[in-house]
Predict the structure.
Amino acid sequence: MSKNRIVLALGGNALGNTLTEQMEAVKGTAKAIVGLIEGGNEVVIAHGNGPQVGMINLAMETAGKTEAKTPYIPMSVCVAMSQGYIGYDLQNALREELLDRGMNIPVATIISQTVVDGDDPAFKDPSKPIGSFYSEEEAKELAKEKGYIMKEDAGRGWRRVVASPRPVDIVEKETVKALLGAGQVVVAAGGGGIPVRSEGNHLAGASAVVDKDFASCVLAQEIDADTLIILTAVEKVAINFGKPNEQWLDTLSLEDAQKFCDEGQFAPGSMLPKVQAAMQFAASKPGRKALITLLEKASEGIAGKTGTTIVSG
């Protein structure tokens, strides 16, 4: 019997907001993930990096204001840095948990690049805020000095915004497949992957951040996964969320999911991209399914006991 191949999309917020919080958070994360591996599944872990890449960007901005005049660090490099230190903590926590359970399975983090389309409309209207808040005067100076696009953020000040284009391809997909074939656990497409544009044989870093749920969906398709698990802060997806007629959903057909998206049932900044990525994966090939649930409920969700499953049939 072939193993169930799973791509697990872990939220950046689930990893904490500081280095100390992350080192503690990955311990619990590792227990849940190793539970899936122990159940006989092949697992690839993707993750977000919202708080982490914001911290790196802020640190670099702050360093640039000192006498040392630290040089400008592109967003693509900030994403790469976040992949490295998140992967470091994740793979070590997973290795320790596997060994504690008597499972000598190697774990590797792949520095992953995500190809985006340079003509994606997102580049014409950057909307993803990152980094610290500035006064209008400081924002204008940054725009002039470094070419940043700065926007006012809900009355709280001005922030740098970058594009969030849709992912087209994961460059290192064959490496991920080779490691899976060798029986290893892989961490890949961290933070949605390092955003790059294809220029012939050259990959040029893009000033963008890629949504990790859509990147996980593309990765899952490219490595021929059976299941995409998108983790969130609730056990199931709901319609009329927070209202008296709130309804939690066990199964969603593609038709119903689209109807609920069109009705505005899911918040654009949180549940909507998760549902859309789940729909995209479920529709990509017969037999594929997507699951949205809590990390600690992932094994139960695979068994059909909880979570919201999106299916094409």
Observations:
- The two ends are 23 Å apart (CA to CA).
